[in-house]
Every structure is written in C-alpha cells, then in structure tokens.
Task: inverse folding
C-alpha cells in the first residue's frame, strides 16, 4: 500500500463548523426554528425566536443547513418551560417551549405560506385559526412500541454509574427519530388521559418481571411488539396488544410458553384496569406494525368502543380511523358542515369517509350522502353508525378512491351537488381530481391534515373552482401539525 493511500484512509474528517452568538429569528416546519446566516437558512430544533445560541452545523447543502445547539447564551422572552420530562428526546411535542398563542400564530402563518407559495392561486382573507379546546390530554389514541434495544440519552451515557452491560435494555415507549429500531422508554406522556400512562407502565413492569421478551426489529424476534391505547368521550377504553409469536418449525415449546405469557399479561391488565371495555390482541408476523390486514382477537369485552358527537354515536373499531382529538374534531366538522351550506336537497359525496363520521354528521342536512373509504372494516363501521343513529339516507363503498370514484360511478349514483373530501397526508390522487372536475359539484369542502398537499390540489382545481373561505383548525397542540378547511365554489363561466 502506498504511503499516501494509507494517509488518506486515516485522514480525520474536518471538524463541523460552529456558529457563535446566533439569534434565532423565526419558526420553521417540522417543529424547528431557523436563522439566516450569510444567505443560508439554518434549521435548528428545540429553539424559539429570540433564543441566542451557539450552533454546530450537522448537515450542509447548497442553500440551507441543519444545526444543533451546543450552548444557550440567553433565552427568548417568549420561551415557555417544557412541562414534559421527556421533552427533546422522544421527538413529539416539539413546540412545548413555544407558548400556545405563539404556536397558533406559527400555524396560521404556515398555512398562509403554503397555500400562497405552493398553490399560487387567488385566496380570500383567512379566518383566524381555531385553537384546541384542550392543550394536554387531548388525544384519544396513542401507540407505544416495544423493543429490546432501549435508547440511552447522551446525559445517561455520561452518567458514571450507568453500566451498559447490566442496564435494562427492554423498553416500551416511542420510536427514536433516525434510529427506528430503538425505543425511548416513556414514564409519562401528557397527550392522553393519565390512565394510558398507568396501563403502559403496568404492561412494561409485568413483562420485565415475568421475563417476557421484547421485540427486536432487526432480528424479527421477541413476543411483546406494540401496544395501542384508545379512549373515548364515553369513557370507554380499548387496548390492543401486538404480539410476535415464534412460528419457526421446531419452536413449538417456545410458542406454547409465549402463548401462556401473553395470556398472563392480558389477564393482568384485565384484572387491574376495569375501565378497559375492549381488550384485544393479534399475532403480527410482518415486518411493520400496521394492523389493517391483521386478524384481531378479543380477550375481554367488545371489539369496539363508542364516541359521541351532538346526538350521534360512532362505533370505533381497532382498525377504524377517528380524529385523534375528539373535542376539536367536533369543531372541525362543524366548519365542514357550515362550508357545505346544505339545504336538505343536496346529493353529497364524502370522500375518504373513514367510519362515516362526517357523512353521518351532515346527513340530516342533505338529501343523500355517499361515503367512500379504502378500509373495508371502516366502511362496515360507517354502515353500523348509520344504523344505530337511524340514518337512512347514506350509502358507503369500500375501495381505492381512484378506482371507485369514476365517471361511471357518478353516472350510476348521481352527480354530486357537494363534495366533502378529507384525504390522507398525501392528498388526492390526480385521477380523483380529474373525476371531481368532470363531475363539477357546485361546492367542494376540502379538509386537510397537510396544507402543502392541499395547496397542490387546490392549484389543480383552480381551473374551475375558486377558494371562498379558509379556516385553519389546530388539532395537535405542541406539534407543528395543523388541519385546514377550504371551501371552493364553481367559477363563473
């Protein structure tokens, strides 16, 4: 080997640049803040405008960079104190240090920027954002991953008393951003009723005490894999255990032991938490934790819980989508109903209907409502929701939106007067937009959890429709996520 080749192999990386005495100037996407330095935008997590910091550049591109704080010189006057002991580690609630009033301002600005910059269409004056009724304990669903690869924080690793060889490696909590096979153990999460913390911690303690194996994502082994906890405004609770049984040939004895362990864990939770009315479990052998295609079994109680909204009841199963902020969902749907401006004579199409919440919510104001949704189980719940609420002017169809919502479908079921659409984060498929433009409803109500893809879709609809109203709604305090409702009407010919 040549001497210079050896030298190149051992050459040290250049030290990462440090920016000293930088003042954070603005809030950015994904819960980050930013500062402009020499025509370069630098994105920084866990800061608020007005913080003066020293930064270390972690990643640099042509026009932007990502950095981390290595020292706070002074804190901003608008900074709030984080209320969660896990702030800055678990990856959620990144805006805890931003007062809620400032969060709302940032979300309003985010929606305005995305609709104008991406949509590039004529827009009316936006309505002021609707803040969430609750800012803590507002979620009705949280998912916790189990792993035998516990994430240790930098502070923990600096602890001289920590012995990594003997430290507890099993954890139940949240996946770490950038290290998805690792879980950070959560002691208390503020986003859901505190009973969810008690249930999760009991699951963790029982599993560790009884030597139940935690999942290893890379090896695809381990019994306890995932836990989903749901509750409702009727004070019903659902807990869904994802197990991963040993199914390899020759593992019959291990499988039998795991089945006994799983049953013991389920029984312990059933005995200690009587509020749980739906205790469910499944054996997930896939490489991911999604449960839409899995068989879910009942250990105790029912296979569903109920939510209520006005005088309506909604059945929510383990695979059902329901807005995770129940109280704020009501206000969101009230906006959608207002924008639909129904008189009782309209045929309404509710796209991406989920469990038919919006469809049933507006049905008494419409002649007929047709709901379409990808998940068959959700559509069955939507039909049940109509039945239990004695609603007889709804029809529901399951399947991929672009395959169902076609010109032939509209010819068969009628041209909609109003379309309400609430797509996933990816927005609407171009074929769906094309069909909507062919159907030419008088009015479109577009509910979105991602204003960026909403803006893209609004640009495509702009050929025939104009935006009449924009109403941001905050469903997710302390996070950068926000919902937005837009009303569109046909342009004059």
Result:
């Amino acid at each position: 080997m040549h001497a210079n080749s050896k030298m190149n192999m051992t050459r040290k990386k250049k030290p990462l640049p440090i920016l000293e005495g930088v003042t954070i100037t603005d809030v950015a996407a994904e819960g980050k803040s930013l500062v402009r330095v020499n025509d370069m935008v630098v994105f920084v997590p866990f800061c608020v405008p007005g913080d003066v910091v020293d930064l270390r550049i972690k990643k640099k591109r042509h026009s932007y960079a990502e950095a981390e704080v290595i020292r706070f010189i002074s804190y901003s006057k608008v900074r709030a104190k984080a209320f969660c002991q896990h702030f800055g580690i678990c990856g959620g609630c990144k805006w805890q240090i931003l007062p809620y009033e400032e969060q709302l301002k940032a979300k309003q600005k985010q929606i305005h920027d995305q609709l104008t910059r991406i949509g590039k269409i004529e827009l009316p004056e936006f309505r002021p954002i609707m803040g969430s009724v609750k800012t803590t304990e507002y979620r009705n669903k949280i998912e916790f991953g189990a792993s035998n690869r516990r994430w240790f924080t930098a502070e923990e690793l600096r602890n001289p008393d920590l012995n990594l060889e003997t430290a507890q490696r099993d954890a139940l909590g949240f996946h770490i951003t950038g290290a998805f096979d690792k879980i950070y153990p959560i002691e208390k999460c503020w986003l859901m009723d505190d009973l969810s913390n008690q249930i999760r911690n009991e699951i963790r303690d029982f599993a560790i005490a009884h030597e139940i194996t935690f999942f290893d994502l890379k090896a695809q082994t381990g019994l306890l894999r995932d836990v989903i906890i749901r509750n409702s405004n009727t004070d019903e609770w659902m807990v869904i255990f994802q197990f991963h049984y040993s199914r390899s040939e020759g593992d019959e004895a291990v499988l039998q032991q795991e089945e006994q362990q799983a049953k013991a864990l389920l029984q312990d939770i059933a005995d200690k938490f009587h509020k749980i009315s739906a205790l469910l479990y499944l054996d997930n052998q896939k490489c991911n934790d999604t449960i839409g295609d899995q068989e879910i079994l009942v250990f105790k109680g029912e296979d569903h819980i109920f939510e209520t909204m006005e005088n309506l009841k909604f059945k929510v199963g383990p695979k059902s989508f329901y807005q995770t902020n129940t109280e704020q969902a009501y206000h969101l749907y009230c906006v959608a109903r207002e924008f639909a401006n129904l008189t009782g004579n309209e045929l309404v199409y509710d796209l991406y209907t989920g469990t038919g919440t919006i469809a049933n919510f507006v049905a008494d104001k419409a002649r007929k409502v047709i709901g379409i949704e990808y998940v068959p189980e959700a559509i069955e719940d939507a039909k049940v929701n109509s039945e239990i609420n004695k609603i007889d002017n709804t029809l529901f169809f399951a399947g991929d939106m672009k395959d169902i919502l076609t010109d032939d479908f509209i010819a068969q079921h009628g041209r909609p007067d109003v379309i309400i659409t609430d797509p996933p984060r990816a927005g609407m498929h171009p074929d769906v937009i094309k069909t909507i433009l062919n159907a030419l409803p008088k009015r479109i109500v577009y509910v979105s959890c991602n204003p960026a893809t909403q803006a893209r879709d609004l640009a495509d609809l702009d050929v025939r429709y104009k935006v009449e109203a924009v109403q941001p709604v905050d469903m997710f305090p302390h996070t950068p996520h926000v919902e937005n409702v837009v009303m569109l009407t046909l342009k004059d010919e």
Remarks:
- The CA atoms of residues 2 and 8 lie 10 Å apart.
